[in-house]
Amino acid sequence: MKNSFLFSLVALLALLPMGLRAQMVEPVKWSFSINMTGDRQGEVVMKVTIDDGWHMYSMDVDPNVGPSPLSITFEKLQGVKLVGDPTPSKAAHEEYDDIFEAKLRWWTESVTIRQKFEATEPDFAIDGVVKYSACNDQNCIPPTSEIFELTGKAKIAATAAAKPDVTKEIAPVGEKVDVAPEPSSLLEAENASSEPTIAEEMATPTDSVAPSPMAPAEPATPKEAPSTVLGIFSVVLAAGLIWLTIWLFNSTVGKAWVVNSIGFLSLIVAIFFLGLADQAFAWRALDREAFLSLWIVTLGLWGLYLLGKFNLGKREIEGNGKISVLRYFIALVAFAFMVYLVPGLWGAPLDFIHDLLPPITTQDFILGGF
Most CB within 10 Å of its CB: which of 85, 147, 181, 219? Predict the structure, then answer.
């Protein structure tokens, strides 16, 4: 009964960040698309719909005043180059704000922002993130990020090296080919003298199939393949670690607290690999806050377990009823790491483990100080 209650509590705490996220107000809706205006020319179309009573701040708001201005960052430009700056479909409304004591500019109802580009390859990709803030007469939402990933095709014909139209009379091997008239200039004479005869060309057939530097390159291996393999590997490994955790929790081999501590570590690593799979398959289910929340809850439960606040199936305190120094030390490390992770829920960079976390662009709530 006690174990069932414990696992129910863990499940509830794990689902808590998702429930909190579902209750967050989202007054601004974004949609992204590609609109080709020519064979090579196109534009990224960003349509914004704003709820009644709300307004979204424009790109020319002073960030030192208070609200965060709209920012558009293009993180990946494959086969395209940007032309000019983003252009909104209408001018932003300007008004003096008594709260911030400054003139601010914002949009209401809706606005469409377009970014022109020119394609340099037949297949192109554009990834980016927009960061915005919005308010109504009563409150504001924190700076929020929206990610977009777009692909498209341009009508770009493959260019081949121009070759002169030279007609030659092919004679049987050994026979002499008529020599062209003497060139009228020294340059033409040098070109003619450097040109091999028909017999030489037939004697060295490999020269005729040598790749031209102007020939189109072989298509590269799709970049999605490594991500897919990584995602599948991460799912399988995470599932294996979760199974190992359950097995260790029920194991009676050796010191139970050591075995169960390995189980907690396996659970932490499993969450990490689930995060990799989430990014590889673009599920968008495990953002930065949810990832950190799962780690924080797991570390907290591990620390409480090591301090003997609960056990997993049997009495695990040493014979004299005291906890060993090693258990206290590991519990201290678990709690210290848990406290270190907490500011990350508000957007702290956490540089020490930055590369292990989901991208900061998936963060829903970021305080201005970070």
Answer: 147
Residue 357 CB partners (closer than 8 Å, separation 6+): 275, 288, 291, 292, 344, 350
Q: Residue 310 to residues 6, 16, 17, 342: CA-CA distances in angstroms?
A: 9, 22, 24, 23
Over the stretch 55-82, which tens digit does the pLDDT of each residue have?
Answer: 999 988 887 776 789 999 999 999 999 9
The span from the CA of 51 to the CA of 53, in Å, is 6
* Burial tier of 154 (Cβ tally within 10 Å: 0-12, 13-18, 19+): buried
> Which 3 state secondary structure label does DSSP give 26?
coil
Q: Is the dihedral of CA 126, 274, 294, 22 positive or negative?
A: positive
For residue 353, give Cα distances in angstroms to 172, 282, 329.
74, 21, 21
Q: What angle do CA 289, 295, 296 make, to 5 degrees?
A: 85
pTM, 2 dp: 0.42
> What is the distance between the alpha carbons of residues 65 and 102, in angstroms, rounded to a whole number?
7
User: Whole-angstrom Cα distance, residue 156 to residue 137?
Assistant: 50
